[in-house]
Amino acid sequence: xxxxxxxxxxxxxxxxxxxxxxxxxxxxxxxxxxxxxxxxxxxxxxxxxxxxxxxxxxxxxxxxxxxxxxxxxxxxxxxxxxxxxxxxxxxxxxxxxxxxxxxxxxxxxxxxxxxxxxxxxxxxxxxxxxxxxxx
Length: 135
Prior knowledge:
Layout: E1 7-13, E2 18-21, E3 27-41, E4 44-57, H1 59-64, E5 72-84, E6 92-106, E7 131-133
Parallel strand pairs: 4-6
Antiparallel strand pairs: 1-3, 1-5, 2-3, 3-4, 3-7, 5-6
């Protein structure tokens, strides 16, 4: 049986990537990426944002240092779950996207840019639609 752990995400960086080095000397950079999508809720177009924690290792960590808050990126990688213990002694689990490749789509978008209107939902009777993804 073949198994695959691959994810592709297009979104905007929430901040400047934070570079550091592991005890082994391997460079790593971490940052959060937000992807927006419109949906229809009770006849109104709404926006939802999914947030992803990205980790860049090795040469990609050096590349990530050149990115800025608001950059529009395409990233491809695999999801990993990691457990850690913060200073308070509790155990925490997080999911992170380990980046295998990335492409800068565009520099930061202007703050005055309006969100593009959502595409219309396929025709239906309008009953029981709930929240439908658009596009």
